[in-house]
Amino acid sequence: MLMRWRKLLLLSLPMAALLLSAFFNGARASINDNVRGRAFNPLYGLISFNCLDDDFAGRFPFTFTFRFNVPACSLSQHGVHLDADDNFSGEAWNPVLGFIDFAPAVAPPDNYAFNVNCLNQCNAANQCTACYNENDQRVYGWGRVVVDGRWIELNSTIVPQTTMTNYLAPQPGIFSGYASSTFGSISFNCSNDSSCATEDYKVWLWKLELKEMSGPNWSFSEACTGGARKAVFKWLRRSGTQTAYRVVINTTNSTSSPVFDSGKLGGSATQLVCPGPMCAFTPTYNTSYYWWLQLWNENDEPTEYFQFDTNTFGVLTDNIAGNATANPVNPNLTFTTYRHEFPTPYFTWSPFEILVGTSTEFVSSSSYYTTASPSTSFPCVGLACQYQWTASDAAAQILASTSATTSIIFANIRPQTVTLSVTDTDLYTCSMTTPVLTINFQLPIWKEVKAE
Questions:
Q1: How high is the mean pLDDT of the chain?
Q2: Which UniProt keywords are given for this protein, alphabetically ordered (predicted)?
């Protein structure tokens, strides 16, 4: 008996070395695939979407008397991937079905008709048979069992249909719903039928990936009320769990010697306001800024630096023309702050008590700023400012709607407002609106008449 166990041990050593080597090679391959987890079919059991989630003992249609302790990805290297165009590729695995291909070089049963629901091309031209629509959060198309050619329809008639939470969800990248096939339904999440206590499974995007970075997120109206020297650095995750973040800002295209580095900040925040409670940095007028974002996942593992770039997932929200002028070399990598503060509209009116059908004079005493003196105001004179007067009374007569001084005759007695918009030479515009004005009837003139 002792000799038998020694022989088994000696035979196992080469096999262990082989499996260990395969583990390291396979794990690297599977890490490149961003879909993980397992789906469930009542007939064939669990379907693995990444070899990192394979169970060695569960790879075979029969049961071993003892469990093998074999690293993931040892026996096969497979995984499913969702690319930047939201198209699927790669292979899932089931011990009975074998591999399930999500980008086979064969036309699916609907001859790619599902492509009408895809946001990007997904057809024979790019060997694509399955896609994700982030707008309706639905999964469309087909997967194919490699060994016998049976098809799995992802956008099936089974309710709920296959979905994945998008970047607007608190936890994006979670699959749910059902696919259909000739061998029965395929559930992507045990929460579909509240069976998690019996068999805990789901499919999800596991890597911490970015969907969007945007800046400066500071509009005209916000600059009018909160000042021009402000920026809000925002981001949205495509998938994964964020436990910390870091924002780096610079005036050159380098993370070295930045003008601001937040350092690692814990939490799942999706924006950093500068200046603000977590940011002591105040942007300078008329300056182009590059910025980078780094995130940490639930295992405290950092991502690479994501750089703001409108050619990939960057969105320039404000001062677009000013950014192109200030940084003509690579405006796709920056946002640019406003040149100066915004105009300050102000006006008075007389008489203060407004009567319907009579003329009321409105006089502007607004001010503006210049690039040379970005924080020092000057009275609006000459052509320095443009004016636009409007009234909530659609029937009101505005005698000079684009002058610094105007007269308005109100036609209705109901409460009204008057708004003045002031635009400077850089086309920065701010508005001022009166409190609700009460428009009264003119009282009749009483005259005593002697009785005859």
A1: 89
A2: Signal
Query: Same domain, yes or no, for 40 and 71?
Result: yes
Last residue in a domain, options 205, 236, 261: 205
Please say whether the beta carbons of 305 and 254 come within 8 A: no
Query: Who's near 156: CB < 8 A, 6+ residues apart?
Result: 162, 178, 179, 180, 185
The answer to whether 338 touches 325, Cβ cutoff 8 Å, is no
pLDDT at 336: 98
Q: What is the pLDDT of residues 291-344, one digit of tens each?
A: 999 999 999 999 999 999 999 999 999 999 999 999 999 999 999 999 999 999
Q: Find the domain containing 177 and state its range.
A: 25-205
Residue pointed to by tokens 């509240």 = 194
H or E segment and range at residue 23? helix 2-31
Residue finishing a domain among 336, 364, 380: 336
> Do 284 and 310 share a domain, yes or no?
yes
pLDDT of 442 > 80? The answer is no
Q: Considering its fold, how many domains does the chain have in total? A: 3
Pick from 144, 296, 149, 136: which is nearest to 210 by CA?
A: 296
The more confident residue out of 219 and 438 is: 219
Tell me, yes or no, whether 199 and 213 share the same domain: no
Same domain, 245 and 119: no
User: Is there a contact between 302 and 295 (Cβ–Cβ < 8 Å)?
Assistant: yes
Q: Looking at residue 360, which CATH number applies to its domain?
A: 2.60.40.1080
Which of the two residues, 332 and 353, has the higher pLDDT score?
Answer: 332
Q: Is the pLDDT of residue 361 over 80?
A: yes
Residue 447 in any domain: the answer is no
Q: Looking at the DSSP assignment, which residues form a beta bridge with residue 101?
A: 91, 144
Quick one: which of 250, 244, 232, 174 has its CA closest to 206? 174
CA nearest neighbour of 422 among 349, 341, 361? 341
Measured in whole angstroms, how far is the alpha carbon of residue 221 from the centre of its chain? 23
